[in-house]
Amino acid sequence: MKIVTEFPFAITDEPDMGIVLSDGCRLSARVWRPEGAGPVPAVLEYIPYRKRDGTLPRDEMMHAYVAGHGYACVRVDMRGNGDSEGLMSDEYTIQELADACEVIEWLAAQDWCDGAVGMMGKSWGGFNCLQTAFLQPPALKAVVSVCSTTDRFADDIHYKGGCLLGENFGWGAVMLSYSSRPADPVLRPDWRAEWLRRLENEPWLAPRWAEMQEKSDYWKHGSVSEDYARMTVPVLSWGGWADNYMNTVAHLVENVPAPVQGIVGPWVHQYPHTAVPGPAIGFLQLALRWWDRWLKGIENGAENDPAYRAYMIHSEAPDASAKHRAGHWVAETVWPSPRVTLQVLALGERSGEGQPSPVPTAGALGAGVALRVPVTINTPQHLGMHTGEFFPMGLNAEMPGDQASDDAISVCFDGVVLSEPLDLLGAARLNLRLSSDQPLGFVVARLCDVAPDGSSVRIAHGMLNLCHRGSMEDPAPMPVGQTVDVAFDIDQMAYRLAAGHRLRLALSTTYWPFLWPSPQPATLTVMAGSLDLPVHQGSAAEWTPPEAQGATPWAHKVLRAGKTTRKIETDLINGTTALVISDDLGDVENLTHGHCTGESMTELWEIHPDDPLSARAVHTWEQRQSRGDWSVKTNAWAEMTATATHLHLKASLTAYEGDTKVFERHFDDKVARRFV
Fold first, then answer.
1. d(Cα 307, Cα 237) in Å, to the nearest integer?
2. Which of 327, 376, 565, 610 is buried most deeply by CB count within 10 Å?
3. Which residue numbers delimit the Xaa-Pro dipeptidyl-peptidase C-terminal domain (predicted)?
4. For residue 257, is the peptide bond before it cis, meaning its omega torsion is within 30 degrees of 0?
5. What does the radius of gyration of the chain's CA atoms come to, in whole angstroms?
6. Nearest Cα to 30, choosing from 18, 48, 47?
């Protein structure tokens, strides 16, 4: 990344501007403003991740950069987080979004703002800027949303295809830890009383989310897909192929009536100017182009840029810690693209004499799949150990690894060896006729790129809880032994398979720890099926993005270096397999204001290959903060297990001031298994 130190405007940096809401709650904002620019548009980032320490390293490189180009950049700690007052009860609440609208109104009324406000964010911030745009506050003129979703039930960390994600538990543990930290005493003299109040009211959210196993009004709130017609604010949407929010970009570009564009790169769950795998690109310059057009009204032609720009990844060896992915940028003027055609691949059928019947050819794939149907699927419970994280953050083997070992215990349909490259762009759709011997179960589909040496790269995956085969709102158990037709989408992709490789469809009834297992091992019998494959006509490099840039990084000192390990372990006595993660981020000192912070985490995901009820997840978190003689620490512990009828979720939260324990609380919840 190129570090830029000279900008059109010098900037002022105010660390704690108070925004007092109508109910008297004071939110704390850090504000970067351009000197001598007069009233300018404001750009708001509004999240719970603590501007004083949590997101400070990225904030200083982004917001100072944008402010230097003539914008007031405002980074607000949400109610109940960081240096703001109040309490937080859940994610994306009515209160949270009402506060956002009130902050936007407040910003527009300041004498240093010209009345136009933009909103940006990644992940939580990417979500709530879409959700706020849905509410149409008058001063909000444009948003830039990174790694977000349009559907909180179908495409977030809780459920996917109606399947309960392991990350539902994991994210509950994360937020139990993240929200346990106090305000900085330098900014909040009442920090201790407010900290104890936060701890006493801290929610353990994983059970609440796990209990809501259908698409209810709870999930529809904040899901902009419920009424795309309300999305009248221009949107620039970003995603990454190594992240699990890659579907949002295409959904927005296809459905939102406002000016909307999307860019998807090879990246993990990070901003595109800092993300891996490379190439990183000039996210800040492209965001400025969007702001200039819609906040300042500059006729720069941004509205005529391609509707959908996607980095088409090329075949390479699998690498769960890839620093760079080979590929090229495809630029589509409209989406869906007329350059994409759906080619139908039939899963092999048996003829009357037990021989494979002919399978239609499909473009560059040649003669379809080799495996014949009917076929039964009942995979071991530990399948999925190489799936990677729901939202990988970096290079610690968090991306999908070699799928060959999981393929070996899946049911795989292989295409022929390709004689020429095959380009895929869009979402494949899988259609199956099947029966199940259990009322609860799911099916997972992975599209993989299989090299001549047998290594397997996951291109995309999709899944369906069979209780949701007809409806996400009104699920129903599978009729045991009855044949039904089901269909579901596999995630969006942009991928070029090399000549000499083959395309694989791998099916499984397990996917640990990405999905929580069904209560009984289900056997599915697939009678017939087909795959609708989005084949692109082929392209060369069609877009050259600007280079990645940022402002001067934060001034800090490493007090203790961190270390991360990620292992798959097999217990040779009891037969369990476990994913074991230790992530110690070390300790650092902010040299600007002297605040020292540190964080450590462990995760255990264990299961026996033959027993879904052996599944167990245990997470621990420690947060450390200090300055001089002052120090605090919080420890969060969480565990999830299950019986055939219930999910069991336990947690504890402990806080220390110095070496003295000042708070302790325990949670013990049991959730009925209705559809998972």
1. 10
2. 327
3. 288-555
4. no
5. 25
6. 18
Measure the CA–CA gap between 431 and 301, rounded to whole angstroms.
42
Burial of 272 (0-12, 13-18, 19+ CB in 10 A): buried
Q: Which residues, listed in sequence order, are joined to residue 165 by a DSSP beta bridge?
A: 515
Q: What is the pLDDT of residues 192-209, one digit of tens each?
A: 999 999 999 999 999 999
The answer to whether the CB of 329 falls within 8 A of the CB of 542 is yes
Place of tokens 């011997």: 437
d(CA 346, CA 530): 4
For residues 342-359, give the mean pLDDT: 55
Of the candidates 248, 296, 253, 214, which has an alpha carbon nearest to the alpha carbon of residue 674?
214
Check: pTM over 0.90? Answer yes or no. Answer: yes
Cis peptide before 336 (omega within 30 of 0): yes
Total residue count of the chain as it appears in this document: 676
CA proximity to 289, closest of 274, 310, 303: 303
Strands (DSSP E) contained in 7-124 are: 11-20, 26-34, 40-47, 72-77, 113-122
The set of residues, in sequence order, having a beta carbon less than 8 Å from that of 629 and lying 6+ positions away, is none
Q: Which of 308, 298, 304 is nearest to 330 (CA)?
A: 308
- What pLDDT, on the 0 to 100 scale, is given for residue 371? 59
**Smallest Cα–Cα separation from 485: which of 429, 527, 523?**
527
Tokens of residue 659, six digits: 């070496």
Residue 427 DSSP SS3: strand
Question: Whose structure tokens read 């985490």?
Answer: 601
Residues 6+ apart with CB under 8 A from 542: 328, 329, 330, 331
pLDDT at 538: 87
Residue type, position 542, single letter = E
* Cα separation, 358 vs 346, whole angstroms: 10
Is 64 in contact with 35 (CB distance < 8 Å)? no
